[in-house]
Each structure stands twice: as C-alpha cells, then as structure tokens.
Amino acid sequence: MSALPPLQQVKVLSMTSPACISVRPVQWEKAAFELQEQLASYYSTAKTSFLAETSAGTVCVVRWGTKWFRAVVVNTRKVEMATMTVRLVDLGKIITTILENLRVVSTVFLHSPALSITCHLHGLQPWSDMEWQKDQVKKMIDMLPDDMLVTLVRRGGPVMDHSGHHSLPVDLTWEVIIMPDPFLPEVVTEFSLTELIAGEFGINGIDELEETIEDDDIFDEINNEDKTEEFSHVKPLDLTENFRWLDPELPPSTQFTGRGTFVDECGQIFIQLHSQRHTVRLLRRLLNEKFSTSEPDGLGKTLQPVEECCVRWRDGNWYRARFIEYLDKEEQEGLVVLVDYGNLYKVEMEDLRSTIYGQRIPIQCLRTVLAGVEPVGGTWSQECLDFIQEKINYAKLGENYKLRVRIVEKTEAQPLRVSITDKSTEGVVVDLAQMLAMLPGEVTMVKKLHILQDPLTRINKSLSWGMVPPGHYTQKNPYLLLCPQEDPDDQVSTIPSIDWEQAGVSEGQMLQVQLADVESFSCVFVQPADPACDYLVQLTAQHIELARVVQAECDLK
After folding, report:
1. Contact criterion met (CB below 8 Å) for 21 and 120
2. Is 542 left (phi over 0), alpha (psi -120 to 50) or beta?
3. How far, in Å, CA of 320 to CA of 30, rounded?
4. Within 13 Å and on the Cβ side, how many CA atoms surround 144?
5. Which residue in 238, 209, 218, 243 sits closest to 122, CA to CA?
6. In angstroms, how far is the first alpha carbon of the chain from the final one?
7. Is the overall model pTM greater than 0.70, yes or no?
8. Alpha helices in 230-335 (DSSP H)
9. Do the bridges between strand 117-121 and strand 166-178 make them parallel or antiparallel, or are there none, so unpaired?
C-alpha cells in the first residue's frame, strides 16, 4: 500500500476511545474484500493446523463469527479456559476468543500489509489513559456519519503509545449539507470529531484543539520518502521563445472555496481554487525533481521582460515565475512574479532557470478585489494590507484556512470583484469587507468600485495575466497534461464511444444490455443490446467489426 496522504477519505472500522480508532482508506476496500474471500475459501476447505504457539506477537488466523481474519496474539487472558486476546490486523479491533478458533496462518496471507490504520485524535492525548464506559463510546460513535465515511486529516507523523504500537495523530472531519429553504442557498456545516468530543465531554486547555492544519510540507515529506523519480517521463518545452503560461480558468460556480496566497499593495487578493490544491502540489514536486540538482543557466544567458521561468523561493522549493527585470548592472539579481501565487520576489540569478516544465498546466491563481470597500484616500495602508494578509493566508500557523468566495459581479477581465467570508473563533461567519469597515479610518463602503492599477501593469502592461471562461480547458488532469503530446500523424483512430444524448437514454430509464465481463465485485462490463434503439445497435456493430479487424491484424503478426 502507498503512503497515506494528509487528507484521505476513510471508513471508521472501530473506536474504543479518542486514543484508539481504527480506519481504512476507501481505496483499500476492494483489497479487503478480496482478502476476506480468499481467507474464507482457504480455511473452509483446506486442512489447517491449530495454533500451538500462543505467546504475545504470534501471527495467526482467527475465526470470528462466520468469517476468518488475520490476527496477532495480544496475550493469554485465562490459561485454564484457553482464552486468547488477539488483534484483528485488518479491522484494528481487539477481541477475546477461545484457542480452538485460532489457526496457523498460511504464508500466502503474509504478503499483504495490514488493511487498517490505527490512529488517535490529536489534542485529546490527556485522555489516553482514561477508562471509557460503553455508553460514552457509543455516544462518540453516534457522532459519526451513518456510513462511517469521513475525511482523515493527518496532524503529524506516527507516534508510539505506551504499549509499543504506532498510532497516527489525526482529526476526522465531514460535512453535512442541508437546504432549509428551496429559495435559499444550501447550508454546509463542517464537523470535527475532535471538537465534538471535546465539547461533549469537556477538555482543559483550548490550545490543544488548534484548527486542523493541511500542511503542504507533509505531502512533500511523504513523496520524498520514495527516492524514485516521479516525473522522469516529463520533458521540457523545446521552443520557449514567445511562450506564455496559460491563463487561469474561472471556476464553474460563482461561489467557491479558495486558498488565499498574497495581497499586493493595491489590495488585490490572489486566490487559488481549493479544488486545484493537488495540481499546485504536483507542480512543486515536478519542479523540485527537475531543478533541485540542476546547474544554473550558462553564462551569457540574458532574460527579457515577461519571459517565463522557474525560480527557487526562500523556502527551498521551486515555483513557476515570470521575469520582470534585472535589479543590478551585473545582472546577478532579478525581480520575478510567482504566477501561481502572485508574490513579487527578488531572486538571485543562480536560483533561476529558463527551462520550462508544465507548460500545459494553466496558472493556478486568480486576482480578486473585495467588492464594496475602497481605501481612504485611494491608497491602502500597510496596517490594513497586513490585516487582510493575516485573514486570507491559508498557510498561516495554526490554521487550516479555506476562504469562502463569491463572485459578485461578472467581468471578462481580472481582477474579479468578490466577497470573502471569514469564520471567527466562535464559529460566526462574517464578511471580510465588513471587518475592514470596522477599522477606524481605513476604508469606506462604496457601491461602485474604483479599481486601482495593479503593480505589474504599472511596470509592464504585458506582465499581468488574463483568464478564460469555465470549461475552456477540456483536459483537467495535471498528470495527463504532463504527458508528451502525440504527433497527429501517429495517432490511431478513436474507439467509438456512446453519445448518450444521441442514444436518447435518460437517468432511471431501463436499458437492455448484454454481459461482457465481470472484473470484480464492484466492476461489471456490459454492452448495449436494446433493439429499440437503432443508434446503439449500430454502435455495437461497429465494436464487433473493430474487434474483428484487430484480431485479423494480430493473426498476421
């Protein structure tokens, strides 16, 4: 199994306290099901030996109920009754059973790692030694969603508990969406199991319950554990002359969740779409892999204004950038803008590369301004800008900060006029513009916003970037965008696929099909075989003819 990412949808398997929770990532469910089937088939038919060695740590297979599970002996509870305590490694559950239910494990079941993860709620460690009553545990379990599916958020690396087992510090979160009125927007409520338990049972020291951090460094740490090159297949752009990073795409909805990155001197707030955070991390991993051991550009290489490049920022990571100008006669220092974040940055030229990677991935941040407010005197004070930066920055310490953004005015050019809401420590949602209006002498409330000229445009009108409408880019998967593009002459004919609009099939309609293949319990392949639809009949005939042609080609070879 691959390393667990910091944010992961999981299913809660068992819970005996805030310090002992077992979960399973949803993508492991298929492997768990197949393992269960294999154990049932093997131990219901094969002649297996009873377990002779019963010391703590002995690996075995145990029958629990009507099923067989892989297990590890914890201890012998009562020798005279031959009662054993074992831990079911794929459920993370500890049970007590009789010795007759234990079998020697076959080596064929030792290759797969445990299909469960033991974790604990970070911030509730002072309660790890408490004896929890059954009614208290039931109350905690009842707090979870009915389907037990939650988002696991890592809060650090695994730690060893007093019993010598490793446990992952986490928070378990989920959302509940309700629509109180058909004419009002839906209400999304976020829940944290850590906060719910702390509120229900009480906790001393609110600092122990700091907001969940979605730490990008954790992602990098995980990916750095694998020393193999993730992007060895990615090649640089051949012709960089006149190349420009692609403009960002507007979100499909006027309301979206964002990650604030930077506020410039004109009050422009640079925001990344929260839904694109994986692309941002992929770009960082790509550039770090390509440039971490690279040599500086050769002598005599002179960059022109608006030329695209990549630079190493002060955190040691590499980012996409746009060159602005040299800052000295010797051309040893330059000014760039980080296109995916909005920051202006003074860079040493030895930390700049003109080689281009990720050229098909659009710029990842949008330029926005707060609607309804203007700075007094037409100039933002540094104190006010610092206040905005502190409120919108997703990477600030102790916060997992996601902005709730709404585009309030349609426009074909940036910056976007937006409203941004902020959640206070008491959980009250307030508007950022209204918060600024409460600062004495800083802003005035206006109906028609006067847009200040942004710093990039003042330097060079070509430095800034535009935007494209939603759906402009057909391919969204960043991994596919990094793949080499095929020469049109080398492309093969496309296998005909179903055009559901032409087929005239709607959701809920019954359709006659023919079973083609069964891959697993959750994946079945069928072919349309409804004689009432001429289009589907013709499409099926095309597939049969295509299969015949391919088979004929294979027979010739």
Report:
1. yes
2. alpha
3. 39
4. 22
5. 209
6. 38
7. no
8. 277-291
9. parallel
DSSP 385-422: HHHHHHHHBTTSTT----EEEEEEE--SSSSEEEEEEE
Per the CB < 8 A criterion, the answer to whether 154 and 214 are in contact is: no
**204 Cβ partners below 8 Å, 6+ apart?**
126
**Please, which residues have CB within 8 angstroms of residue 289's CB and are 6 or more apart in sequence?**
229, 230, 231
Residue 262 β-bridge partners: 270
Q: What is the pLDDT along the chain (557 residues), one digit of tens a residue?
A: 445 566 788 999 999 888 889 999 999 999 999 999 999 989 887 777 888 777 888 899 999 988 999 999 887 665 555 788 899 999 989 899 888 888 899 888 988 889 999 999 886 755 555 678 888 899 999 999 999 999 998 877 788 766 677 888 888 988 887 765 555 445 567 788 988 888 887 654 333 333 333 445 544 544 454 455 778 888 999 888 889 999 999 998 898 989 999 999 889 999 999 888 889 989 999 999 999 999 998 777 889 999 999 999 998 999 999 999 999 988 889 999 999 999 999 999 999 999 999 999 999 999 999 998 999 888 899 999 999 998 888 876 445 567 889 999 888 788 899 999 865 545 456 788 888 988 898 888 887 766 666 677 777 667 788 899 999 998 888 888 888 765 544 444 455 567 777 777 777 778 888 887 777 767 788 877 777 777 777 777 777 777 777 777 776 65
Q: Choose among 263, 255, 211: nearest CA to 421.
A: 255
Q: Which residue in this structure is represented by tokens 């596919």?
A: 480
Give percent helix, percent strand, percent coil of the chain, each to the nearest 5: 25, 30, 45
Structure tokens, 54:
């019963």
Distances (CA, A) of 387 to 184, 431, 449: 31, 14, 20
